[in-house]
From TrEMBL:
Residues 81-184 form the Late embryogenesis abundant protein LEA-2 subgroup domain. Keywords: Membrane, Transmembrane, Transmembrane helix. It comes from the Eukaryota. Its main location: membrane. The chain crosses the membrane at residues 27-49. PANTHER family: NDR1_HIN1-LIKE PROTEIN 26 (PTHR31415:SF20), OS05G0367900 PROTEIN (PTHR31415). InterPro entries: LEA_2, NDR1-like. It is found in: Membrane. It is a single-pass membrane protein. This is Late embryogenesis abundant protein LEA-2 subgroup domain-containing protein. One of its GO terms (cellular component) is plasmodesma. GO terms for biological process: defense response to other organism.
Amino acid sequence: MSLLFTTSPKHCANKGLNLKRLFNKKLLYFLSTFFLSILSIILLIWFILHPSKPQFYLKNADIYQLSLASPHLLNSTIEITLQSKNPNTRVGIYYDKVRIFAAYKGQQITGDSEVPSFYQGHEDTNYLTTSLNGNGMPVYPLFGYEVGRDQTSGKLIVELKLDGQLRWKVGMWVSGRYRFDVDCTAAIGVKQGAVPGPLSLMEGAQCSTTV
């Protein structure tokens, strides 16, 4: 006498549900492993290359105007040239939303000058030349006195600041955006009794960069 085994519809439904759950688990495991592998490769490349932050050097700065329209309002015109260098041999740099302005004793004395976005290849050097202008910039009451005192000493110390966003490029991979800040200190020489003309940078200056 033989036994006849039959499967109920409920048993078939449970078996199909279990197979579906098993398939979903395998798919989830495969996708997790795949993305973790890709992330590990990217991080490995990142740590091997370890990109160095860009270097900036102030080549030139000329003050054409620095005069008070009133005790509290300043007009200014400053032309500068910055040298930007990518020190990395395998990493390129994209620069976005870059702006430059000048300050004196912590007080902003020009408006912002926008620099168009640009790409800097491996160990490339770029020169950024721009004119910084301020028309009716508000200043503190003792601003004129301090400028006059520094002119008498023969030197004005002007701060040039640059900030923006950068992205690292390794092969075809491009990172997210990172904020960077650049600070340059310009020692502007003042010659007493000299022929009227722009006040110029006494010597080039290395800038500090923070990423």
